[in-house]
Structures are given as structure tokens and as C-alpha cells.
Amino acid sequence: MIYDRSTGDKIFDLCNNLFMVLVIMVMIFPMAHVISVSLSDGQEVTKGGFFLYPRGFNLVGYQTVFKDPMLVRSYGNTILYSVLGTVVTLVFTCLTAYPLSIKGYKLKKVTTIYLTITMFLSGGMIPTYLLIRRLHLINTVTVMVLPFCVSVYNCILFRTFFQGIPPSLRESAMIDGAGETRILFQIIMPLSKAILATIGLFTLVGKWNDWFSALIYLTEEERYPVQMILRKVLFNVSSLKDMDEATRSMLRINKVTPQNIQMAVIVIVILPIMCVYPFLQKYFVKGVLVGTIKG
Questions:
Q1: Which region among 80-84, 90-94, 207-211, 271-275 has the lowest average model confidence (pLDDT)?
Q2: pLDDT in tens, 131-143
Q3: Which of 241, 210, 243 has its CA nearest to residue 228?
Q4: Do 162 and 97 contact (CB within 8 A), yes or no?
Q5: CA atoms of 233 and 258, how far apart (whole Å)
Q6: Residue among 269, 27, 295, 24 nearest 157 (CA)
Q7: Which letter, b or e, does each residue of 73-87 get, where b requires 16 or more Cβ atoms within 10 Å of its Cβ?
Q8: How far is CA 255 from each of CA 5, 34, 61, 169, 251, rounded to the nearest angstrom?
Q9: d(CA 118, CA 123)
Q10: 3-state DSSP call for residue 252?
Q11: Looking at the predicted structure, is the pLDDT value of residue 81 above 90?
């Protein structure tokens, strides 16, 4: 249907487009600066200013970063913590939310009230640390994956999404002899790709960027995630003095600055998330808005 747009509509669209362009610029320019500095010559970097493109192409910053065996090891740790943590979070959240979506579940109200209380009351950092230490989880892979894997907010979103699936599917499966576990993993979860992808990406990003848990619960550098290495590089610009003589000589010859290395580490850390996001973006509208469509 074609209709004439009013002057107010045209003005609104123009202002909306200008605002979105401004938002895009605010988001793209810092990223362009980081990438450009990481690829620029050290002499150009020392001059300062804002970089929209590399000035004097140079990859020595990346070469220096990847020569550090600790970075490669921490990168593998981060991938392990992120992937395993995301899978555990999705599975445990589904196991918690599925019974709450069934009308005949007798403890539904009591469980919902109990879970809601935990959203406002928590034990705090010190009791949590003492509990984790008592469970002998300090300095283990489990401590980066298991604690806080179930969020009440995510449970509510999953419960709401599950309630939108026709109950007749569950009833038909039970008539055919399927148990609750099989119904959840073979019927309900395959139909919940939108909410799984949305919460999964949020969880993946959170696990990937998590450095505070490693700072508190990990004591061995061999188990550090890459965020801890990034933190060390960003807050210790003078760390170049700890490098061996060959590395320092190479940096002087190629005129690389600490800023090159810092920006290179940032790019290396955020690149995987940037690659994953476009593939899951199409699920966002349906997955994120599920809680607002049906309460």
C-alpha cells in the first residue's frame, strides 16, 4: 500500500537516520583507532593523534605478542572456559526453567519465589570465596565454569519461552513413551534456538571478558585466561623491560612502541567475539523480546 508521508514523518526519519549514523560513528571510530595503531609504525604512534588508518604498515606488534608462550596458553584457557561455561550455563538453565514451565508442577510457585529471592539477596564475595575454597575449587577449571552458571533472570526468560511452545507436543511425546529428559533435549530445546542463541552469546561474551573471577580464584599463571594477560599488558606499559634482549633489539629495529603491543593484544582478544556475533544476530529480536511479549 502506497501512501503520502507527512512532513513530520520525513523529519522524524531524517533525524532518526542522522542519529543512527552518529551512533555508528561512535562505535566504529574507536575500533578503527585500535586496529590502526596496532598496525602502524612505532614512530607514527609516538606522534599521537587519532588513527583512522595504519600509518606505516607494521606487524611486529602481533609477532611480539604471539612469541609469548603465556599468551598462547591463556588464549586456549579462555576458549575452554568460554565454550564449556556457555554449554554448562545453557544446560543447567534449561533444566531449571523447564519444570517451571509445566502447569502441573506442584512446587512451581514455591520454587519461583525461592529463585526470585536470590535475585535480591546474595552471600557476598567473602562467603562465596570461603565456600569455593571449602569445595576445593580454587585454581581449577571448574571454578571458572560452574559458579554462577544459573541466572534467575535467564531462567525466567527460558521459562517464558518454553511456555510459548504448545503443550500438546509434550503430551504427545509422553503418550509415545518419552520421558521428561528426552522431551526437553529432543523436543523443547531444538524448538528454542532463538533463546538459546541469544543467552548463549551473552554468556559467551561474559565468560570471554571475565578476568575478575580469575583474579580471585586462580593462583597459577598457567590457568590464567587471556584477559589477565591483557590486563597485565594494559596496566604495565613498562613491561618491555622484562623481555629478553633479542626481543628488545627487534622492537628497536622495527620501531615498535608499547602502544602497538597493547592494541595488538586488544584486537586479538576481541576478534573471536566479533566473528561469532554476526552468525547469531538474527536470533536477537525474537530471543531478547520474549520476556516482554509474554509474562
A1: 271-275
A2: 899 998 899 999 9
A3: 210
A4: yes
A5: 9
A6: 295
A7: bbbebbebbbebbbe
A8: 58, 18, 10, 66, 6
A9: 9
A10: helix
A11: yes
Give SS3 for 109: helix
CA 162 to chain centroid, in Å, comes to 24
Question: Per-residue confidence at 3, pLDDT binned at 50, 70, 90?
Answer: low
* Res 294: pLDDT: 47
pLDDT of residue 22: 92
8 Å CB contact between 123 and 65: no
Grid cell 615498535 — which residue?
256
- How many angstroms separate the CA atoms of 245 and 251, rounded? 10
Distance CA 183, CA 191 (A): 11
Q: How confident is the model at residue 73 (pLDDT cuts 50, 70, 90)?
A: confident
Cβ atoms within 10 A of the Cβ of 121, count? Answer: 7
pTM of this prediction?
Answer: 0.77
